Amino acid sequence: MFLILLVQLIVVYQLSTAFPTSFGQYDIVAKENDDKTTRFFIVGDWGGLPVSPFDTPSEVAVADAMGKLGVKLNTTFQLALGDNFYYDGVQTVNDSRFQTTFEHVFSATSLQTPWYVLAGNHDHGGNVSAEIEYGKTSKRWIFPDYFYSFSLWQSDKQKKIIDFIMIDTVILCGGDTLSDWDHKPLEGPSNKHVSEAYWQWIEGQLRQSTAPYLLVNGHFPVYSVAEHGPTKCLVDRLRPMLHQYHATAYICGHDHNLQHLTNDMNGVHMNYFVVGAANFIDPSQEHAKDVPVDALKFFWAGSPVYGGFGLAEVNNTHLSLSFIDHAEQTLYQTVMTPRS
């Protein structure tokens, strides 16, 4: 009972500080570019290997491409969408994997900008609190809690551009022991009271968002045609909220490919992106019949060795999301307009 009360108090506090009207603790200012466009990277399922050399050819190639593009495009930050350390997370804040799988791989000068991190199922196989604690010593690793929000502001800090909501889909839906080869349905949250409190937190965040764009980010997909497919828990609970509050997109990893899906509900159009191709590639489309008809707009698992990542570009008129491969080539791009 005490634990439930404590979680509820934490959620109430988080709601009271959600999306402040002034610059918040984890907020970030857009970098000035000549074309008035701000850019950031999105990378998922990037977490190397638990044995030497502690990375994969895909991760190294993706990091190299991000580093080079980051210089050319003057990127502002990165979103890291979970499965940060394969296969069983980290054990302590001093775990060597922080160096061998992250710091030494994503070492380019252009990537020494903030990394906004969330946890995946493989991270929950270890000690997620150690990943959170690492943010207290790292200059770029931002992971203040299992659930948190932040905003991207114009350079003068007078107007928000994007609100971001970072969620832990394992706490919401279960799956902390899920392996990449385990495709059975999730068993549900390990603590239903904690999960329910965070569902309330998510709805509060969505309700309070006022930015022209609202991106919700998690690890498990809402919709996916690939090896794990849709996540029923998120289809049932999160999807209606995304449409109700006119979110711009839901972005995730988990399935090891690049996907763009869309779906309409009550007259509201929604974008779903899967960006999980930074470490392993899986071409499976075994759940193609489990998503709405004509939902899939793009799918890529084109290289069995070298992966891909996302690039978001935002200005006063639109937000675009592109999929980029290890050779810095644009595979696909879609454009989204400000929320009504």
Description:
The chain has a single domain (about 25-335), classed as Purple Acid Phosphatase, chain A, domain 2 (4-Layer Sandwich), CATH 3.60.21. It contains eight helices and 15 strands. The chain has helices spanning about 1-15, 55-75, 95-105, 120-125, 130-135, 170-175, 190-210, 230-245; strands spanning about 30, 40-45, 80, 115, 140, 150-155, 160-165, 215, 250, 260-265, 270-275, 295-300, 310-315, 320-325, 330-335. The strands form two sheets. The chain has an eight-stranded mixed sheet with strand order 1-6-7-8-9-11-10-12. Strands 5-4-3-2-13-14-15 form a seven-stranded mixed sheet, with helices on one face. Helix 1 runs parallel beside helix 7. The radius of gyration is 18 Å and the shape is globular. Its cofactor is Fe cation.
Present the secondary structure layout.
Elements: H1 2-16, E1 28-29, E2 38-43, H2 57-73, E3 78-80, H3 97-103, E4 115-117, H4 121-124, H5 128-134, E5 141-142, E6 148-153, E7 160-166, H6 169-173, H7 192-208, E8 213-217, H8 232-244, E9 249-252, E10 258-265, E11 268-275, E12 296-300, E13 308-314, E14 319-325, E15 330-336
Parallel strand pairs: 1-6, 2-3, 3-4, 4-5, 7-8, 8-9, 9-11
Antiparallel strand pairs: 2-13, 6-7, 10-11, 10-12, 13-14, 14-15
Quote the distance from N terminus to C terminus.
42 Å
Architecture, CATH level 2?
4-Layer Sandwich
In total, the number of domains comes to 1
What is the radius of gyration? 18 Å
Give the rounded overall mean pLDDT. Answer: 93
Please estimate the helix content. 25-40%
The CATH homologous superfamily is named Metallo-dependent phosphatases
Residue runs with pLDDT of under 50 for 5 or more positions: none
CATH topology: Purple Acid Phosphatase, chain A, domain 2
Number of strands: 15
CATH class descriptor name: Alpha Beta
**Form type:** globular
Spatially, the strands of the biggest sheet line up as 1-6-7-8-9-11-10-12
Oligomer description: single chain
Number of helices: 8
Compressed to H and E, one letter per element, the order equals HEEHEHEHHEEEHHEHEEEEEEE
Beta-strand percentage?
A: 15-25%
The class by helix and strand makeup works out as alpha/beta
Largest β sheet strand count, sense and barrel closure: 8 strands, mixed
